Amino acid sequence: MTGKIFAAARNEGRGALVGYLPVGYPTVPGSLEAMRALCGIGDSGTKEYAGVDLVEIGMPYSDPVMDGVTVQKASTRALQRGVRVRDVFSAVEAVAETGTAAVVMIYWNLVEHYGPHAFARDLVAAGGAGLITPDLTPDEAGAWFEASDSYGLDRIFLVAPSSSDERLAATVDSCRGWVYATSLMGVTGARAQVSSAAPALVERIRSLRPQALAGVGLGVSNGAQAAEVNGYADAAIVGSALVATLIQADDAGSPDDLAGLRTVVADLATGVRSGTSESAVRLSN
Which regions of 106-234 does DSSP assign to beta strands (E)? Predict the structure, then answer.
């Protein structure tokens, strides 16, 4: 499903842009408006600028294993303000209504508690395309394989620079759509420079599985970095830099002010469209 989005970006001579925001922050309704802003929806309620190609909706969790300080802060506030798992489906619907696809990043315990088949059913009903499961490995994902196959959902697992070739190949083979390549060891967070480990990781993925689609996350914070990532990967994934704008507005007493978010999204969208990526050339051949 989402692999087609990467292919559509390729046809434009560029890599794709994936934007992450957590549902429930600054409030559930506020987060839905923020996600619409990711998709290029302005104050007028209509499309006003180029947005992201794919929205990654985060489900706040009390014990995250890879969320950095910025995402943790927003997620903690969302939990304190009463976000519930079912709210993720409202977020998916809000994104789908803009014509943009959405995947959900969620820790497996929440899906297991909800029921994998029930979660898959409700995700499809809301218009969702699949799940990113940061704490679930393919060899422990039997229930998710069954549920995702039943409902035709994408499975997006994570690989890291520390992954062995055997683990890397097995994980890519278990994915449907694309594989999430974490460019840094550790937790998420915007950085001044994208990790030099990222190109090497993508190269390893392609040497093992030439047709694999890889999105790179952890560290991208602006349009120039997004363009750099899309020079070797199929998609640049941005999270903390987007979440930070919501925290700034919330701390300033204007939680509904999305001007900062829209500015960052516009910069990122311009960045990924700034030139033909090597990835796009590779995929077109």
Answer: 130-132, 154-156, 158-159, 179-182, 214-217
Is 67 a catalytic site residue? yes
* DSSP at 61: -
**Catalytic site residue from 67, 87, 122, 228:** 67
Q: How many CB atoms within 10 Å of residue 208?
A: 15
Distance CA 40, CA 48 (A): 6
Write the pLDDT tens digit of every residue in 120-148. 999 999 999 999 999 999 999 999 999 99
Does the active-site annotation cover 256? no
Euclidean distance between CA atoms 219 and 72, whole angstroms: 15
pLDDT at 191: 43
Q: Which residues lie across from 101 on neighbouring strands?
A: 54
Q: Which two tokens stand for residue 15?
A: 């890599």
Catalytic residue among 56, 87, 122, 234: 56
Using one digit for the tens of pLDDT, what is the confidence trace for 205-249?
A: 999 999 999 999 877 889 999 999 999 999 999 999 999 999 999
